[in-house]
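Possible race condition, two jobs.
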Amino acid sequence: MFNILIADDEKLEREALKAILKKGIDSALSIHEAVNGRESIVTAKSVKPEIIFMDIKMPGIDGLEAAREIRKSLPEVSIVFLTAFNQFEYAQEAIQIGVDFFIIKPASEFHVIDVTSKLLSRIEERRHVRFREEDNRLKLERVKEYLETEFVYNLVIRGMDRDKFNNYLTILDVSFLEGVAGIVSIQFDTYPIAVNSDYHKQILRKRVSFIIKKILGDMGFNVLMNLELTSIYFIVVKPEDAVCNVDPGNLNWKEISGKIISEVGKEFSVEILMGFGKVFSDPGDSIASIIAAKDALSKNSNTTLFINWEIGLEEALIKGSRSEVMSVFQKLRESLESSNLSFEQTRQYLLELGTVIRHYSVHQFPEGIEQPALPELESIRDINTLMDEFKLFLNAFLYQRSLVRKANYSPAIEAACSYLEKKFRSDITLEEAAGKAGLSSFYFSKLFKKIKNVTFIEYLTLLRIDEAKKLLKETNMSIREISENIGYGDQNYFTRVFKKVVAMSPSAFRAKK
């Protein structure tokens, strides 16, 4: 739908122009009228037309003055001046205003349709450009959100060297001067309404995260979060630029915790526990800040957290080494049993640890190989049975992991390939495909080549060329049409790629059918 405004003090001129537009333009039009310059200004602000046909000579505010005023609020509107032969002295001023066309009155049908068609084509192109820009912006936001989650998860669970830390922040377009880790544990049982499902818990986590990001963001910090674990983990980053003048090392993070806890309580009527770690300027010290944050949280919640055993256990599970897994678990068990944790706190800790392990398994277990279920610990009443049940869970994980290794199968890569097979006609990037696989682009690229024996670009090219061969044999589409249909905007480039893959040109291939 396009809005068009006709501003002319002569009714016959307005009616004639309306009739020409309705008869000669196929696009859906909503035509509005104004009888003078002042009314045209008011109407333009109201209906926001894409095109204005403006008579220069009107009583009161003339067309030039009206157009100049309208341009202030609608800088992209297309303006066509309706003028008589003796009014070309206004041409220079009209050009300064940014008028698109002149039409001499009385307007010929051909000229009106020609000018309008050109303007509509121009407007449609602008819309397409904006749509593509917005689509790309949303895609980038989704990729960044995933990378942010992946970054914090890897940092918390696996640890991260300086290079990997800096690479993530570079991709996320976040500069780093100093940072501090934080953890929030939401006390779901304090919420006025029962929060039983994972879906509702995630909604509450997101709401709490908005408060955290708002308070810390107002101080000039960037906040990178992971909301997929049982607790909310985040890294507060002071950027290198001058936006943040606050020195993290001089802040009282306990007071900041109190402010966030208070604000969350006021907004959502739920209690949270919170801990901040040590400020670090060397990315290599980030894990120490996370451990300190967990320690601070444990003091607030009377819960001890065993980060070293968490990391060691996951590394052993990734390797699939049963002896190493059981060795680490035995040390974890001894630490838990010798701690001052209550039975209920121990059970809660193991449930959280199981959640972390299952989170890891989401991207590792293909369809047909079941993801290990969380251990059923709620009904258990003694510590030995609790530990034995968790041990069974670890054994189940190891068994399922062995099935994956035997299958030599990557569900992440297969998910990406399935996406490529559906979307190969569109402009797909490596980053977009990696996002569908749930992997970083660097790791995705390496894993894709390992599994498929071709690069991502080679695989995408083969999909497109296979479709081109099918269309060449089964349809009468032109080479240009086929090129555009399979995702190549440049016919010459398509021809070169086709010849490289098939060893003959598209025309020669079609001639063979």
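Job #2 (started ~2 s after job #1):
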Amino acid sequence: MKDFVVAIDLGTSCTAFSWKSIVDPAGPSIGVPDMKPNEDIIGKSPTTLLIAGSTGSDKMFRPTGAEAYGREAQHRYANGDIPHGAQLFKRFKMIYDDLVDAVTKSTSRKAEMMLMDIFVIALEYIKSVALMGMTLTHAVSAEDVTWVLTVPVCCSEPAKHFMREAATKAGFIKGGNDDEGLVLCMEPIAACLALGNRLQWRMRDKYLVIDCGGGTVDISAFEVISSAPPSLEQLGEASGGPWGSTNVDRLFEAYLKDFVLSVAQEAGERSLESFFASSASYRINQAWERAKIGLRSVDHDCRIDLSELSREPLEVTTEEMDEGRRLKNRGGTEFVGGHGTFDLVLRPALLRKFFKEQCKNISGAVSEQLERPHLQGLSAVVMVGGFSGSMHVQEAVRACVARKYPDGSVEVSIPKSPDLAIVEGAAHFVSAPPASGAVGPGGQQLPAAPRFAAVTSANSYGIVVSETGGGVVPAFFDPFFLKGQGYEMNHMVTKNYTIQSDIPFTLSVSSCASPHVHPGCNRLTDIGGLKSLQSQEFSVPPPPPVAEVGCCGMMKPKARTELNKIEITVEFSLIGIELHVRVRSNTGQVMLQQAVPFLRHEGAPPAYGSL
């Protein structure tokens, strides 16, 4: 048996990998191909490759090597920071089940490349980044690793052969028949393993797994046929379709383009083309990516910062923004708000339009699966994939399950980080321990598995909130994790704070090495000061004044009472051996995301934090 396992989730939209020691029961460390030293990135990398090379007269691209992956590749391409002849390829996995000898076009549509060559270059890049991170704490080579590649449940045998051949060419193993060095793991099985003890893993338990990704939504049913190690057998035919988040993104991008055209009517055609091809447009779409998943309710607004429009080459004014809103609302307020600002506030009615078709398709497929005879006695529904983080998708699935099981006997289980669940669970596929209370094929009771725990906090971590420029010295530190205490995998702490929305404030994510920190508020003078890991100033717009109708039908403002006070939610969660921090406003807007690689694993070498 190899000493380490590295799992790779090369998805249509995004990519991530994980690694762990084969004998370590604790959760794996998570990495992404475009992570840089001392840089904290939350979320997977876009499946995008910037490849150097040249294009022949036949339009076939002849690669010489990868220049960049993910966000870095997109930024460099958008800013023109690329070698002569280089091409950008993205979302290339979407077609790999069609023909293993297929070609795919570059983003510019000016070049074509053999799909096998793209996969080999992508896997080589991910392999090198993973090994680089692992060698920070271990002497590791590719031969010391069991490589796990995740594949969708609908993956055909030719496509599996394609993946194994690409991995062999990328240097993962020396021969295509090395079953110890290279393992393919079905994504639904990895999804169930990621939930650990949240699933019972009893013999003959049935799970319906809904994998909501960027390109597709895959729905499949499984039955537990072994608890030691956990093993699943597929029940019936899988279903699904091209209903992933990219379809919602396209609707937003089309809406955004139409909105920009309406507010930048004075800009010339070249200025508009320059903007839509720039990193500014990319940043707006990234803000949308975060915001659509950050909503805590389908009834909340979604706020997108469009201040990029005020700069060159468009130089849009707030007056032009207001006129654009008026046109999009057709005289009402149903779809978009943000008067007098550069914020584009998407109302729930508009968001429902974006999500409607995909949720309808997902609901229909889930309902059809729930009616199949082999799913009678269903134990749980598992939702994974980045699109599962959407409250609209969650609401659609929960409604289907509630209609079928109105007594609440079947729970919908969603991991804390659904976009990372598959790559996290796949790392346990090779050495998956038996679940607590597991029963073997002969009915014998098996020993309980080690719990996903043993992660000890090296310091205390928490926040300090203070007014900006108000002369208020932060007097208290509120810890979420305490130094020296052990925490289970996926442990999460959430706290709410009430702030003045019309006063800018600074939120500081801080650590403290003092052993005297206690739960609750700590005076800074008692604990000897803090180290700020991330400090950011926020200015949250106050909510609009509530208006009521007067006797003549005129709108008259209602006096403000507590409207200038809003609530923010701070979430600290343990993912792998990293501490992740997320701050949301009461509308669900994600105001801050931070990964803190400052936790250590008890009895193990120093934790892998970031590449």
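Residues 348-370 form the longest helix (23 residues).
Logs attached separately.
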